[in-house]
Amino acid sequence: MAKTLVYKFGGASVKDSIAVKNLTEILRNRLRKDMVIVVSAMGKTTNALESILSRKLAKEDFSQNSSTLKAFHLEICEGLFSAGHPIFAQVQNLFLQLENKLELDLSRENYDEFYDSIVGFGELVSSRIVAEYLCSQDLLVVWKDAREVVKTNSDFRFAKIDWEETKKSCSSQWKPLLGNFPILTQGFIGSDPKGKPTTLGREGSDFTAAILATSLGASSVTIWKDVPGVLNADPKIFSDTRKFDELGYREAAEMTYFGASVIHPKTIKPLANVDIPLFVKSFLDPEAPGTKIHGAAIPHEVPTIVLKKEQILVSFKVTDFTFIEELHIHRVYERLQALKLRVNMLQLSAISISIVIDAQLFKLDQLLEKLKSEFEIRYNEGLELLTILHPAQEGISAYLEGYEVLLEQASRNTFQAVRRKI
Ligand SMILES: Nc1ncnc2c1ncn2[C@@H]1O[C@H](COP(=O)(O)OP(=O)(O)O)[C@@H](O)[C@H]1O
Ligand SMILES: N[C@@H](CC(=O)OP(=O)(O)O)C(=O)O
Fold it and tell me: Ligand 1 within 6 A of 263 CB?
């Protein structure tokens, strides 16, 4: 049996009916049995679902938001199917199910679990539409629910993969099917040991592609994006970017760790462990080679810029005239771990610990609440964390012009600054 190929199409590649048609053309000459196609929610659907949840939590009316989301999906269907096609009833039905779930009680206490029962809806409806359209174009795919095989723990919103169980389910349930048909499934979602829906963290569909590739022993993963490949900076923010023809796993992982959003940070490691190459290709120019991320890439020294937005700088100052010691750091990190907050940058001084974290709903309040009795705490929100890998010294200042720098750190290979527009 040939080795499985995994393709992943993100929100941008299914953002409207034209995009779905383009995806179909990409698959026309490439579709084969032994292929898994992972799709994300259409366009910004996950953001829209998050807004619905925020409104619900704030006890605000969200009926307009869900109607708009339904209309958005039905309009995509209108661009793909003739009137009366069964997909319209299926989509209506899926939205009824969503609206039904949204009737249930939501509070800060059950927020994460509730969130996971709602936000994966974007992937479920998107994958239904795409599978149906491919079949209507004689590109036969079998729609499968990723939650059948992607097994996780119950850390809702940031569920961790149970690799053993996922591998077992992939081998017993999907592998036999792949001998005959390609499978179309969803990114981002999984299920816990009780069968409850979980999600893998925002933008987690790239990670799903890597999970499935690893679990199925695939020969490669291709993620289709609206950029020519991995560039040395986000082209939506910086000009004069350069595409990497190839990148080592380590370099790619480092870029994503610092926040290069072109690939989800958890994607690289499982692939590197078993040496499965990852291709990042443009869905706008599918014949172009894109970027190959693999183990044998030649290292480079090209300055690479990564910008992480919505950052918060929090400083914990000791109040009892002692100096910072291990115990203080331990207390802060213990709390961060409990809140599943990752530190993007850390700086210590004699009397304070400064950390940079992502802005996340409720989390700052919870962090401050627990530690305010031990430290004097100050924080600044709405910041950007700029990281330059392989910085050229003479080039750094250009990225700081017009910005106030709140924190700065440099090593031989990495420059980081927390900045705020003046
Ligand atoms: N270093 C980079 N190289 C290429 N694209 C990048 C880079 N950093 C950030 N990006 C952004 O990543 C986007 C593609 O990722 P994403 O929007 O998550 O795609 P999708 O949701 O369709 O999977 C690009 O449009 C680009 O703005
Ligand atoms: N739809 C989810 C998962 C995802 O990965 O999407 P995308 O592939 O469009 O980044 C999100 O927006 O978080």
Answer: no
Q: Which candidate, 197, 192, 190, places its Cα nearest to that of 212?
A: 190
Angle, vertex CA 323, rays to CA 318 and CA 326, nearest 5? 90
**What element of type H or E holds 52?**
helix 45-57
Q: Is 120 in the pocket of ligand 2 (CB under 6 A)?
A: no
- Assign domain 304-421 to a CATH class: alpha beta
Ligand nearest to the CA of 46: 2
Nearest CA to ligand 2 atom 4: 203
The answer to whether the CB of 47 is under 6 A from ligand 1 is no
Name the closest ligand to CA 125.
2
pLDDT in tens, 286-338: 999 999 999 999 988 899 999 999 999 999 998 877 888 888 899 899 999 99
**Which residues 6+ apart lie within 8 Å of 31 measured at CB?**
134, 139, 141, 182
Query: Which protein residue has the closest C-alpha to ligand 2 atom 9?
Result: 11
Alpha-carbon distance 405 to 354, whole Å? 14
DSSP 316: E
Q: What is d(CA 192, CA 107) in angstroms, rounded to the nearest whole number? A: 21
Q: Is 10 in the pocket of ligand 2 (CB under 6 A)?
A: yes
Indicate left, alpha or beta for 43 from its phi (over 0: left) and psi (-120 to 50: alpha): left
Band of residue 392 on the pLDDT scale cut at 50, 70, 90: confident
Domain boundary assignment for the chain: 5-225, 304-421
CA atoms within 13 A on the CB side of 261: 12
Q: Would the CB of 307 count as within 6 Å of ligand 1? A: no
Q: Is 188 in the pocket of ligand 2 (CB under 6 A)?
A: yes
CATH 3.40.1160.10, applies to 5-225: yes
The sign one gets for the Cα dihedral 79, 80, 82, 83 is negative
**What tokens were used for 28?**
């026309």
Element (H, E) at 258: helix 249-258
